Please model this.
Amino acid sequence: MSALSLPSSQRRFRIRALPLLASCLGWAVIAGCAHRAPKPTPYPKAAPPLASPAAAAPVTHYSRYTLIEMATEAAQSDLLQQVVDVRIPAAANTSVGDTLRYVLLHSGYRLCETSAIRDFDSFPLPAAHMHLGPVPLASALQLLVGRDWQLETDEGNRRVCFSRRDSTASALAPSTSGRHHGSFTGVTPALTSTRGQP
Model:
């Protein structure tokens, strides 16, 4: 329907409404441009600094909905921090030296062949050490040799060595576990039988 086919009263209304609509629209634009922005609120002084985008590790798509961070894990950088969970095969003649070699089998390290290691070959493995872990590799190795030995690594050759912490320490030092009180006297108490006694 064209504007000429409308009755004259409707044509006049449309013609008068058009300038009114244009002026309202103009005032709305002017009022919108004159709006004052609110003052920004200052951040608290104790706010932590934001990490820069350059410090963030790169991320890539692993699958459709999974993003992974492309960074090395701590155990990949420091092999002594890798977590091991080892069950030693039970044998009557398993030694601490054999167990050290078994624990180091897939760790990336090998054992130094020194007199200390030959000593470990003569130590029997305690039953409490048949299952180790999950613990870091360094802790497992230290647990196997005991607290009198110092763990040393040769990172260039990927070797693990041990040396005595204190050579003046007595071989029969008292236990510090709290189970035994007093010092070791070397005397075994006699076992007495209570059968037949009231």
Notes: Residues 8-33 form the longest helix (26 residues).
